[in-house]
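tool_call: predict_structure(chain=1)
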Amino acid sequence: MRRSLVSKLTSATFILLLAALTCAGQTPTPSPATSDEKAEKIVQKAVQAMGGDRYLNVKTVVGHGFFTEFKDGVSGIPLRFVDYIVYPDKERTEFIGGGQRLIQTNDRDRGWVYDGAALTLKDQTAAQVEDFRMSTRTGIENLLRGGWRTQGAKLSYIGRREAGLAHRNETVRLTYPDGFWIEYEFAADTGLPAKVLYQRKQKKRDGDEVEEVPEEDRLYKPITINGIVAPYVVDHFRNGQQTSRLNYDSVEYNKPVADALFAKPASFKAVK
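tool_result:
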């Protein structure tokens, strides 16, 4: 499952200035993807651990669960969500709680937001669209499904890391032509994904200076459904502090998802 909905609610409440926004028009020409043998073996082991061909043949995912935001280490009120994914680049997430409803929908390089409390329907900002692109780029699916191979990225082996008592994680790194990198950790014994780590550029609160902030996803509670394995709990950390928890309670694979879900309604009154 894609981790992009982890950032859905936070992107609606925080304006993130990303590196790609500060260097618009300077997109480098992708070079052929490269990888070393050790890293490739780890990725292939992970693909098999996730379900092999069954995992790779997933076209749609419909998930239900709860999203909880954390502030200063304190959890907020969980919001129920339903998430619709059509690979490789469509997603609609609905958050429901406290009598309110928020919908964020992305279709490739476009997106819109419905806010039921304010009764508004708006196109996503450039920062929100870029946030979706970033989450797609860093997600475990992009690595395991091979999307990076057409983007000139380099896959390399980093080594083993401590992961608790008597446990180790194998670590690989994707490095893109623009210098952006993501590290993925996999349990050395099972091959299942355990962590996703990267650094994100954002504007400092007290000025125009941009800083790099470490971000991390920790993947827990792997569940097998129809031969496909996915983490049912995803904890997100920013600068070492937990900012959210994503907890699924049901997932359906390859269920028909109507194109109409991603089309922007004519007005807020037409939102279904």
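agent: The chain has one domain: 4-22+31-260. Proceeding to next step.
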